[in-house]
Amino acid sequence: MRLAVTQSFNALHLTPVLASFLQEHPAIDVTALEWANSEIIAGVADGTLDLGVAFGPIEVPLSMQLLYKDRLMLACSKDHPFASLESISLHALADEALALLTTDYGTRQALDRFFEVQELSPHRIIELNTFASILKLVETGLCISVMPGSPIDATPAQSGVVFRQLDPAPPIRDIQLLLPSTAARSPAAVAFGNILRDRFR
Fold first, then answer.
1. Cis ω for the linkage preceding 61 (within 30 of 0)
2. CATH annotation of 2-67+173-200
3. How much is the average pLDDT of 177-199?
4. Alpha carbon distance 62, 55 (integer Å)
5. What is the pLDDT of residue 150?
6. Is the model's pLDDT at 157 over the cut of 60?
7. What is the pTM of this model?
8. How many angstroms separate the Cα of 68 from the Cα of each of 84, 153, 162, 174, 196?
9. What is the mean pLDDT of residues 74-97?
10. Sign, Cα dihedral of 73, 161, 128, 123
11. Pairing state of beta strands 97-101 and 124-128?
12. Is-same-fold flag (2-67+173-200; 69-171)?
């Protein structure tokens, strides 16, 4: 079975879902990839992938099932002063060091547009090209980030990082499970999709 997910989903959620699948189906070979959103959509559409996890809008004829609402949230170490708050004013970030994706990523571009609309100019930006690296740096307490957060009912893999709401909140995206037409679905893809839906139900 071949599947691909976005970078944020890989960093936050893929490992426990994949572990559950492998425990239930130890005889199935799996190739799990981290691809750009547009590549995931195209891969499921042309049959290169058995399934994918991507964000909308999606304008090709695929089976789409909503997993959760993706929110850009504040990420900080569990020892940071922000960790004790339920919600943080966006403009409180102005004097913080922010670890963000580089500007060639759609998530960063959307965040920059949001900052511009809200007239926020961060004091210092540290750019990295993977969410995994950002999470590890945030966990040290040397910086914070704004990144796709974990749904309230799902626990991030990084226990040293907490997610908090921002006020005002950035726009929300739909994270979708993508599958080919019913006739083209493999039993393995159906089983993996069931585990995904159960995690975010």
1. no
2. 3.40.190.10
3. 90
4. 13
5. 59
6. no
7. 0.77
8. 25, 10, 18, 6, 10
9. 95
10. positive
11. parallel
12. yes
Once rounded to an integer, what is the mean pLDDT over residues 161-183? 90
Phi-psi region of 104 (alpha: psi -120 to 50; beta: other; left: phi over 0): alpha
Query: Which residue ranges make up each domain of the chain?
Result: 2-67+173-200, 69-171
Cis peptide before 148 (omega within 30 of 0): no
Please name the amino acid found at residue 144: I
Closest CA to 98 of 81, 132, 121, 71: 121
Cβ density class 173-191: b for 16+ within 10 Å, e for less:
bebbbbbbeeeeeeebbee
Question: Looking at the predicted structure, is the pLDDT value of residue 155 above 70?
Answer: no
Provide the pLDDT confidence category of residue 69 given band limits of 50, 70 and 90. confident
What is the spatial distance between Cα 67 and Cα 54, in angstroms, rounded to a whole number?
10
Report residue 144 as tokens.
């914070």
Identify the pLDDT of residue 149.
77
CATH architecture of the domain formed by 69-171: 3-Layer(aba) Sandwich (3.40)
Instruction: Give residue-wise pLDDT tens across range 109-135.
Output: 889 999 999 999 999 999 999 988 999
Q: Sign of the CA dihedral 129, 131, 137, 138?
A: positive
Pairing of strands 161-167, 63-77: antiparallel
